[in-house]
Design goal:
single chain, 816 residues, alpha/beta, 41% helix
Length: 816
């Protein structure tokens, strides 16, 4: 046997394959005659939404006498290469820039002076591939040792942790990488080490390739989306001329193609070899977006075109990494809490004065009337109105108490509120005080000198040394000696870090109407307003906030933008399903008014009012229906349940009653203190039933931030709150009437659109209906709705529609 090379999915155009082979033979061939080299080009499976895997390199040396390769010595011991699994990401866009290693962080390169951290990319690839090979390909996880690599093409020759910088990718580079990192384990999979394993390796690789081909198959819905993007790209469009000249806003209603338009612009940049970044709120949506992008990019790579970076991540993930990398998370503490308490006192005084001016006695009047008067006020801002609603609710909850004066209940209210945040742990500050973190992150990048002074950054050397890599900076010896951070040093650090994030990218932001003004301003500061494209659904699609984010303003000044509006016709929802959505919207005065997609088959609406439904058999038919229409199981069915559903079983610890969820404190976008319930993750009672019908990707039990990527062969089970932007041939909504009630009773419902002249009842109903419509507009062909109580007010609205429309199928109890 010789050194054999096997190429799968063709040869890569990202490096010289012949030169790589030659260097393998010249270096490895000196002591090794029997070896297998597999190169899986353009690994087709999406294993990470943030990082791309271009090549999976597998090297295996037959373990027999006289056949070996020594890579290096460590502590007088030879390190032998047995086999290696090396997933590689190629970065070929920095070939003409200056590059050096950041000596304080080996995962970081300084490219034209800007720090770019490739440690995140290599970790994403490593753990994504580790999960895939073990979960989907049958390899034993505990036996796997994967060595991820980022190759950066450049005239400079550098090798560091998980990074090779060189003008050419060769086997010599890999050997030098192994030496520098002093790797002691050069056996990625023990089962390939034996002679028997060596002979079976080719079958294992074939299985991996076969499974990857299966898991990368594009279903009807994804193909259709990619075709639409292709058609948009092939047309000469005026909108392309505005890219990187002005901020672009794409407006439209739900399901009218805003995200597709956004993706077409993103892929325009990617196909030109330019870098992009796509941000959205929904963790689950990034899988759909990334899979669509991957499907499109796979075609372009095969056409030998240069491709730009195209990560897809959540906004929260982006802002967390940003606030951490510039030290903001490390310095926020008690100073911030005092700011919040001060604002609470000021706003409480304004509310009391407002009702005094109205001649209303807060302790004696009708609570609903007071809230209505408060909501209609033009003299109070939304932040103060929120405190007013909380104050009225506090008085109502303590109506049995005999207050001696207004000053007494004011002090008790403030005491009650401040107790919520007094014991908040500082290490959870990002989640607890997200908007405070945003405010201070914005201050740090827009006016670092002011941030430096406000938080006494100069005297926090020990706290910030590691995160900002202060100790190893050249020319900074005096500050290191004095353990002091000058304003200049901090300013330069901020500029470099934000420059690294910019990375010559065009930014694309989905559902931008729901952004906070601070999120908007941070993004404009970093990327430049002309390098941003956003999609906006308008006020009716607000979920996160009560105010529409205005993207035509930056630094309190009007900016030049170019706005494009999609048509009002839905690109995905069939007539019978959309007619029902419009009915619900009209009933609750939500501006939807969408036109359905025109097809011969108008789709179906199924209302289930049975007490003991057999979901296994029913859902099997849903998946089969999707498969008949060339959908994957992932596309065929999406199951939505409520996080607080009574239809759960206890978790493994025996805990999890939905009635005793823990309450935690938080600070909202107006710096107001809130109480929030954190819902325990519990298993849905139908999961075991459904497991015999389909492979379930359960997003309701585990932390989705740590959840592996769902594959086309899996059916998604998620909470209602996670469905935004998703779609499926069939969508099953369980206990929709219960979900309506729960949303209606949330504190946010009472404050929803509080600036409009509407009663509390109207605000609550509209808030709940907005969430309901978000769920109902996910279906393409079939909408299944399970109702818990037919006598419920919302159930009656649905059943009234069903009775009046012959095209609705009602599942009832079998008559005896």
């Amino acid at each position: 046997m010789n050194i054999e090379f096997t190429y799968l999915n063709g040869k890569s155009n990202l490096f010289n394959n012949e030169n790589f082979e030659e260097t393998v033979k010249n270096i490895l061939g000196k002591t090794c005659s029997d070896a297998q080299i597999f190169l899986l080009n353009n690994f087709p499976v999406l294993i990470s939404t943030e990082s791309h895997l271009d090549l999976l390199l597998i090297i295996n040396i037959l373990d027999k006498k006289g056949n070996y390769f020594v890579t290096h010595r460590k502590e007088k011991k030879n390190i032998y290469l047995k086999n290696l699994i090396v997933p590689i990401s190629f970065q070929n866009q920095y070939d003409s820039e200056s590059i050096e290693v950041n000596e304080d962080n080996k995962d970081e390169l300084l490219i034209s002076g800007n720090p770019i951290n490739y440690g995140i990319d290599s970790n994403n690839i490593k753990f994504g591939l580790l999960d895939y090979l073990s979960r989907k390909c049958g390899l034993e996880k505990k036996e796997l040792f994967i060595h991820p690599l980022v190759f950066v093409k450049n005239e400079t020759e550098l090798i560091t942790t998980n990074i090779i910088v060189s003008k050419e990718f060769t086997f010599k580079s890999i050997v030098e990488y192994v030496k520098i990192n002093e790797l002691e384990i050069l056996c990625s999979y023990k089962k390939w080490k034996s002679e028997h394993g060596f002979m079976n390796l080719i079958e294992d690789v074939k299985s991996i390739n076969k499974q990857a081909s299966k898991d990368s198959e594009l279903g009807f819905l994804t193909k259709k989306k990619i075709d639409r993007i292709g058609k948009l790209l092939s047309n000469t469009k005026q909108i392309y001329e505005e890219l990187n000249n002005n901020l672009i806003i794409i407006k439209g209603k739900a399901g009218t193609g805003k995200t597709t338009e956004l993706l077409s612009l993103m892929l325009k940049k990617v196909s030109e070899g330019q870098n992009s970044l796509f941000l959205t709120y929904n963790k689950l949506l990034i899988y759909d977006i990334a899979r669509t992008v991957r499907g499109y990019v796979n075609k372009r790579i095969n056409a030998n075109e240069r491709i730009g970076e195209h990560p897809v991540i959540t906004l929260h993930s982006f802002f967390y990494k940003l606030s951490k990398t510039i030290g903001v998370l490390h310095v926020l503490s008690d100073t911030r809490k005092e700011e919040i308490k001060s604002k609470l006192g000021e706003r409480t005084d304004l509310i009391i004065s407002f009702f005094n001016d109205q001649g209303i006695k807060l302790l004696a009047n009708d609570y609903k009337t007071n809230k209505t008067i408060l909501g209609k006020s033009n003299s109070l801002d939304i932040a103060t109105k929120e405190v007013g609603i909380d104050l009225i609710n506090y008085i109502k909850q303590n109506s049995s108490k005999k207050w001696t004066s207004k000053e007494e209940f004011k002090l008790k209210f403030i005491e009650y509120k401040t107790k919520i945040i007094d014991n908040l742990p500082n290490d959870d500050i990002f989640l607890i005080d997200y908007y405070g973190v945003l405010e201070n992150t914005l201050l740090a990048i827009s006016d670092p000198d002011k941030f430096h002074e406000k938080y006494n950054v100069g005297d926090r050397f020990e706290l910030l040394d590691v995160v900002l890599n202060l100790s190893g900076k050249k020319g900074n010896e005096d500050e290191i000696e004095a353990k002091h951070i000058s304003a200049k040093t901090y300013r330069h650090t901020i500029n470099r870090r934000t420059g690294g994030l910019r990375r010559k990218r065009t930014l694309f932001v989905d559902e931008s109407q729901d952004c906070d003004r601070r999120e908007r301003d941070i993004l404009m500061h970093i990327f430049g307003k002309e390098n941003i494209v956003v999609s906006s659904g308008g006020k009716e699609q607000l979920i996160r906030h009560v105010e529409l984010c205005n993207w035509e303003v930056f630094n309190s000044k009007k900016i030049i933008t170019k706005t494009y509006t999609t048509r009002s016709k839905s690109f995905r929802i069939k007539e019978n399903v959309l007619h029902f959505c419009n009915y619900i919207a009209d009933y609750y005065k939500v501006d939807l008014n969408l036109e359905p997609i025109k097809t011969e088959d108008k789709g179906q609406l199924i209302i289930d009012i049975r007490s003991n439904e057999n979901v296994g058999k029913l859902f099997e038919s849903f998946i089969q229906n999707g498969e008949i229409n060339e959908c994957t199981p992932y596309e065929s069915l999406l199951i939505l349940i409520d996080a607080r559903s009574k239809e759960i079983i206890k978790n493994k610890n025996g805990n999890g009653s939905p009635d005793d969820e823990p309450v935690v404190g938080a600070i909202n976008e107006y710096d107001n203190i809130e109480e929030r319930v954190t819902y325990r993750k519990n298993e849905w009672k139908h999961v075991k039933n459904l497991s015999s019908v389909c492979s379930i990707w359960d997003g309701t039990v585990d932390d989705n931030r740590k959840k592996s990527v769902p594959y086309p062969t899996e059916t998604r089970l998620i909470h209602y709150e996670s469905c935004r932007g998703l779609e499926a041939w069939t969508v099953a909504c369980f206990n929709l009437d219960v979900f309506f009630d729960q949303k209606r009773e949330e504190p946010d419902a009472e404050k929803f659109l509080v600036d409009l002249f509407s009663t509390e009842e109207e605000r609550r109903n509209k808030f709940a209906a907005t969430w309901i419509l978000m769920a109902l507009t996910r279906a393409i062909d079939t909408q299944y709705i399970k109702l818990n109580d037919v006598d419920h007010e919302f159930s009656k609205v649905i059943l009234d529609y069903a009775i009046k429309n012959d095209n609705v199928k009602i599942l009832k109890e079998a008559s005896r």
